[in-house]
């Protein structure tokens, strides 16, 4: 039996891939209604993270923030009080490397193995099983999880011991936040010069500077449809803040990233935290 905790935008699609592949699944989410589509397809509902741990041999967690993962892990009815000795816990949440190491140490005390395995990719890759996993942890634990990761993703990058998977995720999302902000500013600048938005984007995509993520954001920026989020302002701001905190702990400056992070923070202050992070285009464009 496989456990899955965190049935949000990403978790629901990842768990759905496992279910569609024929695996038995036991699920928990703070809001049960979000898990109903999976339950209707055969997933078993558990009343707490502890109950998931009692039933599953491998448990995946995909949670929104560091506070949520601590609550799931360490509460009285939490996952660590349910996992069986020898079980494998795979955490795909985006948290700090130091928190991943703390979770790994807590799991080890229970004779449970732990992988930090956050992902690159949003809703469409999650639906298609095309995520990229950045994994930190023991190689033998990864080999046990690999067949399931292969169902949900197209690539697995083993970065080293616990904490290195989440380290790579922060590096990835640091560049993600900067790329979308730079593209948004370029498009908005072109419009301020009297250029047509569709033509600007077409010309930018023909050149060498357009990263793949920008193609995913083309329709949102063209249609200015930001309320239907693939990846929220709240999420990119949180990830860039985690990177900033980790950089401070390691004596490393992030001058460009901290400036971009502040712009996402201003979007948040405008009440757009639940909007797609491409809404930074709307924030930057000339009104």
TrEMBL record:
Keyword Nucleotide-binding carried by entry: no
UniProt keyword annotations, A-Z: NAD, Oxidoreductase
Active site: 169
Highest rank taxon of the organism: Bacteria
A Pfam family assignment: NAD_binding_11
Keyword Nucleotide-binding: no
InterPro entries recorded: 6-PGluconate_DH-like_C_sf, 6PGD_dom2, 6PGDH_NADP-bd, HIBADH-like_NADP-bd, HIBADH-related, NAD(P)-bd_dom_sf
Residue ranges constituting the 3-hydroxyisobutyrate dehydrogenase-like NAD-binding domain according to the UniProt record: 163-283
Coiled coil (UniProt feature): none
GO molecular function annotation: NAD binding; NADP binding; oxidoreductase activity
SUPFAM superfamilies: 6-phosphogluconate dehydrogenase C-terminal domain-like, NAD(P)-binding Rossmann-fold domains
All residue ranges annotated as the 6-phosphogluconate dehydrogenase NADP-binding domain in the record: 2-158
UniProt family annotation: Belongs to the HIBADH-related family.
Protein name as catalogued: 6-phosphogluconate dehydrogenase
Species annotation: Sporolactobacillus laevolacticus DSM 442
């Amino acid at each position: 039996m496989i456990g899955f905790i965190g049935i949000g935008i990403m978790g629901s699609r990842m768990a759905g891939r496992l279910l569609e592949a024929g695996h038995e699944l036991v699920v928990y989410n703070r809001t049960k209604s979000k898990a109903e589509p999976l339950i209707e397809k055969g997933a078993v509902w558990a009343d707490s993270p502890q109950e998931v741990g009692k039933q599953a041999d491998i448990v995946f967690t995909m949670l929104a923030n560091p506070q949520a993962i601590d609550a799931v892990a360490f509460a009285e009815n939490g996952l660590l009080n349910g996992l069986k000795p020898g079980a494998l816990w795979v955490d795909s949440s985006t948290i700090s490397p130091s928190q991943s190491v703390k979770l790994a140490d807590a799991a080890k005390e229970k004779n449970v193995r732990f992988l930090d395995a956050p992902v690159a990719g949003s809703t469409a890759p999650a639906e298609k099983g095309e995520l990229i996993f950045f994994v930190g942890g023991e190689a033998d634990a990864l080999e046990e999880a690999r067949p399931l990761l292969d169902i949900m993703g197209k690539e697995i990058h083993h970065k080293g011991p616990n904490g290195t998977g989440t380290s790579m995720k922060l590096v990835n999302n640091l560049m993600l936040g900067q790329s979308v902000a730079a593209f948004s500013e370029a498009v908005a600048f072109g419009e301020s010069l009297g250029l047509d938005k569709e033509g600007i984007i077409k010309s930018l995509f023909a050149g060498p500077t357009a990263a793949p993520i920008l193609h995913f954001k083309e329709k949102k920026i063209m249609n200015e449809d930001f309320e239907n989020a693939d990846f929220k302002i709240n999420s990119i701001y949180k990830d860039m803040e985690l990177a900033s905190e980790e950089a401070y702990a390691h004596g490393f400056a992030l001058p460009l990233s901290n400036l971009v992070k502040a712009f996402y923070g201003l979007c948040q202050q405008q009440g757009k935290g639940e909007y797609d992070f491409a809404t930074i285009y709307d924030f930057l464009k000339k009104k």
